[in-house]
Amino acid sequence: MSVIQKTLVKNLSAGLWMTLGGVIPEMIYGYFAVEGLKIFEHYPLVFEIMQWAVLPILLLVGWNYLKPKKKQEVLLKTTEVQAEIKVLSLGGDVLSGFLLSLLNPQLLPFWLVILINYQNYKILSIESSIDKIAFVLGASIGAFFLNYLCAYVANRKRGLVFEFLSPKMFDKVMGWTFILVAFIQAVKLLVF
What is the C-alpha to C-alpha distance for residues 131 and 119, in angstroms, rounded to an integer? Predict the structure, then answer.
């Protein structure tokens, strides 16, 4: 959803840079899942901290979408300033994709469920180091292309989206979605 928002608000390139940043945690969580969470078995506090750490991040991201945007001052239009802004923006897009994916509470359970289902099919079972590498790379490449497709469609249908939903309303939908995900995560941690 963040990739779609980034594409609609900025452009396709920004959405793809965010996707690239988001693929790195896919690799990390895919590796954790394929190793049977041995790391988290030895250090359960790390897993618990990660689950709780996502709450303030999601709330902060949601609030950031909901708060009124200040009018930006006109920047100098020199080539150097524009080049610096572009470099900072690319780094910010990659970093935001990385952090949002890293703190996504659904990624690790998702890959665990996938791996459990893989065990039902002999051809898909993961038994060697090559199988592990293939799984992690396949999961990451698949996640990238899925996000690429979403960004591409969002970019192509930008006019249609904003015909029915103003950019201000879109920010509200994004903000409340992040807050809802934080609430669901909190309930899950407190009840289950």
Answer: 12
